[in-house]
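Protein: Glycolate oxidase FAD binding subunit
Species: Tranquillimonas rosea
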Amino acid sequence: MLRPENEDELAEMVRGAAGPLRIEGGGTRPVGVTTGEVLSTAGLSGITLYEPGALTLVARAGTPVAEVEAALAAEGQRLPFEPMDHRALMGTGGAPTMGGMAAANASGPRRIQAGACRDSLIGVRFVDGTGAVVKNGGRVMKNVTGYDLVKLMAGARGTLGVLSEVAVKVLPRPAAQVTLRLRGLDAGRAVQAMSAALGSPYEVTGAAHRGQGAAAETLLRLEGFESQIAHRRAALSELMAPYGAVEVEDDGAAGDALWREIRDVSGLAAAEEDVWRVSVRPSDAPEAARRLEAARLLFDWGGGLIWAATDPGLDLRAALAGVAGHATLVRAAPETHAALGTFAPEAPPLAAISHGLRARFDPRGILNPGLMG
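Structure follows.
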């Protein structure tokens, strides 16, 4: 394993690589099958800048997300996008890192209100496939000079460069949160309820649905100042009344735990099924659920994100043929990844753009080769 302790060592190791490199942060998100010598960024650790008044934090790529969250919590702040922790779902150890979070564009339930990880990234430093150090963005939101490599690197999973540092926008942690719960809705009614809630002026920051039949529950989260929550809770409860009895829970630690379960998809953990991550239009989620009636499902983002636990080897993309969207095979045996492909095939024009970007940033094809086409 290669384990650089600073950016210069990282660049030297990439320049000197004689073959493929498998980029790894905390080792918690091993999506797909890659080959090559492991290049770990875990040694690139530490918060290099934190200015609470400017809502800005800069950390090296190997910095544990938990370390950053603890520093933010001490100042009453948080990462806006609620990054997912894949360890329960994937059965992995280690610790999620800031670089891995950015490379995977890891985003949780609050994405519907605060945007994805990429929307909070304001700067990156990375080493491309030639060993060159590249910096893009800045440490304050007003810096928008140059090409937007910040968003390009978010979700690239190390195929365009190895992140060495990330700068993020942070936000204050709200004083209160409350969860509204509806029980027993089918997928169609649940999506209708979540769409109505998200279309309301009551600033819903979480909208999820899980379970089937009488055990099904539809969850809506409100966050904000104590003085505002009571009014928004009452108004949203009235809006949801046509969908059934509304249970209201004033959340503390229990509410945090509930939304961590949604964020981390822990209900689909510790099982033998394959797990897929499916992005669709919320209005298409009920049809997707109908076609996947044998699967265990979790709807997030108001139905725009579906997590599906299916029988091993099932070709979910074939089952959802004709439903607009894309599906990523997150957890499966290596042979299933090889047979079905981890990521959905790209349309020819998009594939050409992706190929051109990889040729530009990694001309030797050594960074996580084959992971994303």
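Remarks: The mean pLDDT is 93.
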